[in-house]
Amino acid sequence: MEALYLLIPLSVVVVFIALWVYFTASDSGQFDDLVGPGLRVLQDDDTAVKPAPDEPHA
């Protein structure tokens, strides 16, 4: 029973810390674009980059 006197306030503190982390990330724009990074992974960018005509070749 005495363990509850420690565990209940500790769990309340952990919940408030988790809420603070979530809302801080939300305010900083962490969750603005959830679809874009996943779609960029699927794009096929295997084409070779050709140098511009005015650039000297190394």
Characterize the structure shown.
- This protein is mainly alpha-helical.
- Helices cover 57% and strands 0% of the residues.
- It has two helices and no strands.
- It has helices at 2-27, 36-42.
- The longest helix has 26 residues, at 2-27.
- It is rod-shaped, with a radius of gyration of 25 Å.
- The model has no long low-confidence stretch (mean pLDDT 85).
Shape: rod-shaped
Strand content: under 5%
Mean pLDDT: 85
Low-confidence stretches: none
**Strand runs, count:** 0
Helix and strand sequence: HH
Largest sheet: none
Topology summary:
Blueprint: H1 2-27, H2 36-42
Task: Note the main attributes of this structure.
58 residues, mainly alpha, 2 helices
Nutshell version of this structure?
The protein is mainly α and about 60 residues long.
